[in-house]
Amino acid sequence: MREQLQAILDVRTRRPQAIAEAAARRKRRDAILGEDNQLFIIAADHPARGALRVGDRPMAIADRLDLLERLSVALSRPGVDGVLGTADIIEDLLLLGVLEDKVIIGSMNRGGLAGTAFEIDDRFTGYDAPAIAKAGFDGGKMLFRIDPDDPATVVTMEACARAISDLAAHGLMAMVEPFISHRVDGRVRNDLSPEAVIRSIAVTAGLGTTSAYTWLKVPVVEDMERVLAASTLPALLLGGEVSGDQDAALGQWRKALQIPSVHGLVIGRTLLFPPDDDVAGAVDATVRLMRG
User: Contact at 8 Å (CB) between 234 and 263?
Assistant: First the structure.
């Protein structure tokens, strides 16, 4: 991997146009969903929000080479469909050649940096719809947090609605991750009660000029059947924070995957940084759970 890293550095300094060339010649999938109607995406967009912590390791994701090695292992495992990331990470993976026949979702709004006073004002500082379409990717992802006490919520809401419409105009998936959020001791915390998640879904479903290409990225909470009854939009389950009890996490996902509107998983740190550091083992266990 050290030699591959040097090759990436050489491209970035001497021939940056090679990144667009790699995207153009990449083999693309015919459809986002496979024959089993499921989708398994590895999430890797945390660094751009300054979210580098994994469990009790505050700088776990700070080493880019280590992250790329873990992503390469995860993407090589049978049953993994693709990746969600910001431009820097996706471009590194393109240069490594690990995104052939993979679904690629570009992360769009990363301006609400973790732990900042402006976290809810989640500006679109990453991909936009034209760039995603030009690169031949499959969709864009956005985080939409609704803080009833923060007027900046409406700025993010308007931007998300515009992005959903723009992606739809290109025939691309809009993956929206909604939450009801509140400041607790100065930090943004997501309300994971069923009622809060239902409300966030209801608001998200109405964003944009069409919902035809909108997918939900939702947490696994109590009473998921009632939660997902709030909309007919297809849903993917998010992994959330790293759990010390992987079996319990798998059990929650297993149950939620039985709901008809659920079509797979979008998981990042939980699989890339498992407690035993066995990325391949964690990914394979999740594939067995989902594809089972």
Answer: yes
